[in-house]
Amino acid sequence: MSFFEVNNLNVSYGAIKAVKGISFQVNQGEIVSLIGANGAGKTTTLHTISGLLHPNEGTIQFAGQDITKSSPSQIVTNGISQVPEGRHVFSGLSVMENLQMGAFLRHDHDSLQADYEKVFSHFPVLKERKNQDAATLSGGEQQMLAMGRALMAHPKLLLLDEPSMGLAPLFIKEIFEIIQQIQSEGTTILLIEQNARKALSIADRGYVLETGKITMTGRGRDLLNDSAIKKAYLGG
Hints:
The chain is 37% helix and 26% strand. By secondary structure, it is of the alpha/beta class.
């Protein structure tokens, strides 16, 4: 059994079928990227994994457990954290308070300090601004804070929803380098990303989602060099 597995997932919004029978898996330690155009069903898939939506059909297995009907808080406790699209930091709270919110469900308080330091080692700017209102950070800094907050939950699987969206190229480069660092420290990553070139360049494997169905799968570098992918997603 793989570390994380989605089988025959169907998700609808009323009469609209957003996800149509998709199946995919993520092995422990991998970065797996789910690419596709806007409206392909990528975010719906992540929200269903996180327990924010419930599927009409299909199962989600994580570390040998069926989590299909688990609540969002139970899913976080089990070891899955999501960095939402659009960042969604808590304005009115400081950077430090946002990070504390990420650790809200943890009971191992003795190891929290080491994890704050680990987050600050990935994102030094957050340490400099730890007493600043999160709303006053730049877009790139807010993305770093959203990632740091998710890491404070100590996830075994990190779900990233469009981490490069709306960011300057310099920040995009930095965010993708940090994603690779996080993987190298043992966190498995499922990456949803419109920037297909960037996503596939760091992914061990990738899946292409089109109008709610998986149409292609392969190693990241093979998909990056595939002529159909180049034409559809890489401007070539």
